Amino acid sequence: MPREFKTVLCPLDFSSESSRALAYALRFAEQSGGKLLLAHIVHVPSGELYEAGGHVLTFDEAKSRALTRMRDLRHQQLGDYANCELLTDIGDPAEQTLSVARQRDVDLIVLSTHGHSSADHILVGSVAEAIIRNAPCPVFIVRRGAE
Protein backbone atom coordinates (compact mmCIF):
# COMPACT_ATOMS: atom_id res chain seq x y z
CA MET A 1 0.00 0.00 0.00
CA PRO A 2 1.43 3.42 -0.93
CA ARG A 3 2.42 5.54 2.00
CA GLU A 4 0.51 8.75 2.66
CA PHE A 5 2.57 11.76 3.55
CA LYS A 6 0.36 13.68 5.98
CA THR A 7 3.15 16.04 7.04
CA VAL A 8 5.74 17.09 4.45
CA LEU A 9 8.75 19.21 5.44
CA CYS A 10 10.56 21.30 2.84
CA PRO A 11 13.68 23.18 4.03
CA LEU A 12 14.28 26.33 1.99
CA ASP A 13 17.38 28.45 1.44
CA PHE A 14 15.74 30.59 -1.27
CA SER A 15 17.92 29.14 -4.02
CA SER A 16 16.37 28.09 -7.32
CA GLU A 17 17.13 24.49 -6.31
CA SER A 18 15.10 24.73 -3.12
CA SER A 19 12.32 26.39 -5.10
CA ARG A 20 12.19 23.31 -7.34
CA ALA A 21 12.10 21.08 -4.26
CA LEU A 22 9.12 23.10 -3.01
CA ALA A 23 7.19 22.24 -6.18
CA TYR A 24 7.68 18.53 -5.44
CA ALA A 25 6.83 18.98 -1.76
CA LEU A 26 3.57 20.64 -2.75
CA ARG A 27 2.68 17.70 -5.01
CA PHE A 28 3.25 15.20 -2.20
CA ALA A 29 1.19 17.26 0.26
CA GLU A 30 -1.63 17.78 -2.24
CA GLN A 31 -1.85 14.06 -3.04
CA SER A 32 -2.60 13.19 0.57
CA GLY A 33 -4.25 16.45 1.65
CA GLY A 34 -1.37 16.80 4.09
CA LYS A 35 0.26 19.68 5.88
CA LEU A 36 3.21 21.33 4.18
CA LEU A 37 5.87 22.71 6.52
CA LEU A 38 8.25 25.23 4.96
CA ALA A 39 11.34 25.87 7.05
CA HIS A 40 14.18 28.34 6.71
CA ILE A 41 17.05 28.15 9.17
CA VAL A 42 19.30 31.20 9.37
CA HIS A 43 22.73 29.63 9.55
CA VAL A 44 25.07 31.16 12.10
CA PRO A 45 27.54 32.49 11.08
CA SER A 46 25.81 33.60 7.94
CA GLY A 47 25.87 36.23 5.25
CA GLU A 48 22.14 36.58 5.94
CA LEU A 49 23.04 38.60 9.03
CA TYR A 50 24.86 41.31 7.09
CA GLU A 51 23.51 44.06 4.86
CA ALA A 52 25.27 46.28 2.39
CA GLY A 53 26.73 49.23 4.24
CA GLY A 54 27.89 47.15 7.19
CA HIS A 55 24.62 46.93 9.15
CA VAL A 56 24.48 43.72 11.16
CA LEU A 57 21.02 42.21 11.59
CA THR A 58 19.82 40.84 14.89
CA PHE A 59 18.58 37.26 14.94
CA ASP A 60 15.01 38.54 15.16
CA GLU A 61 15.53 40.79 12.12
CA ALA A 62 17.05 37.92 10.13
CA LYS A 63 14.16 35.61 11.06
CA SER A 64 11.64 38.32 10.19
CA ARG A 65 13.20 38.86 6.76
CA ALA A 66 13.25 35.12 6.14
CA LEU A 67 9.57 34.91 7.08
CA THR A 68 8.75 37.72 4.65
CA ARG A 69 10.62 35.91 1.86
CA MET A 70 8.83 32.68 2.73
CA ARG A 71 5.44 34.40 2.59
CA ASP A 72 6.31 35.76 -0.86
CA LEU A 73 7.46 32.32 -2.01
CA ARG A 74 4.32 30.73 -0.58
CA HIS A 75 2.16 33.21 -2.49
CA GLN A 76 4.10 32.70 -5.74
CA GLN A 77 4.43 28.91 -5.67
CA LEU A 78 1.65 27.44 -3.57
CA GLY A 79 -1.36 29.23 -4.99
CA ASP A 80 -4.38 28.47 -2.86
CA TYR A 81 -2.89 25.54 -0.91
CA ALA A 82 -3.86 26.63 2.59
CA ASN A 83 -2.57 23.70 4.66
CA CYS A 84 0.89 25.22 5.01
CA GLU A 85 2.94 26.45 7.93
CA LEU A 86 6.04 28.67 7.77
CA LEU A 87 8.87 28.03 10.24
CA THR A 88 12.01 30.05 10.83
CA ASP A 89 14.82 29.52 13.29
CA ILE A 90 18.49 30.23 13.92
CA GLY A 91 21.23 27.61 14.00
CA ASP A 92 22.65 24.75 12.00
CA PRO A 93 20.30 24.03 9.07
CA ALA A 94 20.72 20.25 9.17
CA GLU A 95 20.35 19.95 12.94
CA GLN A 96 17.34 22.28 13.06
CA THR A 97 15.64 20.55 10.12
CA LEU A 98 16.08 17.16 11.77
CA SER A 99 14.76 18.56 15.03
CA VAL A 100 11.62 19.86 13.30
CA ALA A 101 11.17 16.51 11.55
CA ARG A 102 11.27 14.68 14.88
CA GLN A 103 9.17 17.16 16.86
CA ARG A 104 6.47 17.47 14.21
CA ASP A 105 6.35 13.76 13.33
CA VAL A 106 7.14 14.51 9.68
CA ASP A 107 6.34 11.77 7.16
CA LEU A 108 8.57 13.05 4.35
CA ILE A 109 11.36 15.59 3.91
CA VAL A 110 11.75 17.08 0.42
CA LEU A 111 14.97 18.96 -0.26
CA SER A 112 17.41 19.91 -2.97
CA THR A 113 20.92 18.50 -3.17
CA HIS A 114 22.61 21.87 -3.40
CA GLY A 115 21.69 25.38 -2.39
CA HIS A 116 23.63 28.48 -1.49
CA SER A 117 26.43 26.68 0.34
CA SER A 118 29.94 27.09 -1.01
CA ALA A 119 31.03 23.96 0.85
CA ASP A 120 29.18 21.50 -1.41
CA HIS A 121 30.25 17.89 -1.49
CA ILE A 122 30.66 16.10 -4.81
CA LEU A 123 27.27 14.36 -4.95
CA VAL A 124 25.08 16.24 -2.49
CA GLY A 125 25.45 19.34 -0.37
CA SER A 126 26.67 18.97 3.20
CA VAL A 127 23.28 19.96 4.69
CA ALA A 128 21.42 17.51 2.45
CA GLU A 129 23.90 14.77 3.29
CA ALA A 130 23.46 15.26 7.04
CA ILE A 131 19.68 15.19 6.69
CA ILE A 132 19.73 12.07 4.50
CA ARG A 133 21.96 10.23 6.98
CA ASN A 134 19.95 11.12 10.09
CA ALA A 135 16.33 11.67 9.03
CA PRO A 136 13.62 9.91 11.05
CA CYS A 137 11.53 9.52 7.86
CA PRO A 138 11.95 9.11 4.09
CA VAL A 139 13.80 11.87 2.24
CA PHE A 140 12.98 12.84 -1.34
CA ILE A 141 15.94 14.50 -3.05
CA VAL A 142 15.60 16.91 -5.95
CA ARG A 143 18.94 16.98 -7.70
CA ARG A 144 20.49 20.10 -9.15
CA GLY A 145 18.98 21.05 -12.46
CA ALA A 146 16.04 18.63 -12.14
CA GLU A 147 12.79 19.75 -13.74
Shape: globular
CATH architecture annotation: 3-Layer(aba) Sandwich
Alpha-beta content class: alpha/beta
Average pLDDT works out at: 85
CATH superfamily descriptor: HUPs
Tell me about this structure:
With 147 residues, the protein is α/β, with parallel strands linked by helices. The protein has one domain (7-142): HUPs (Rossmann fold, 3-Layer(aba) Sandwich). The chain is built from four helices and five strands; from the N terminus they run E-H-E-H-E-H-E-H-E. The longest helix is centred in the middle third of the chain and has 20 residues, at 59-78. Residues 116-124 have low confidence and may be disordered.
SSE layout:
Blueprint: E1 7-11, H1 16-32, E2 35-43, H2 59-78, E3 84-91, H3 93-103, E4 108-112, H4 126-134, E5 139-142
Parallel strand pairs: 1-2, 1-4, 2-3, 4-5
Give a short synopsis of this structure:
With 147 residues, the chain is of the alpha/beta class.
Supply the key terms.
five-stranded parallel sheet, Rossmann fold
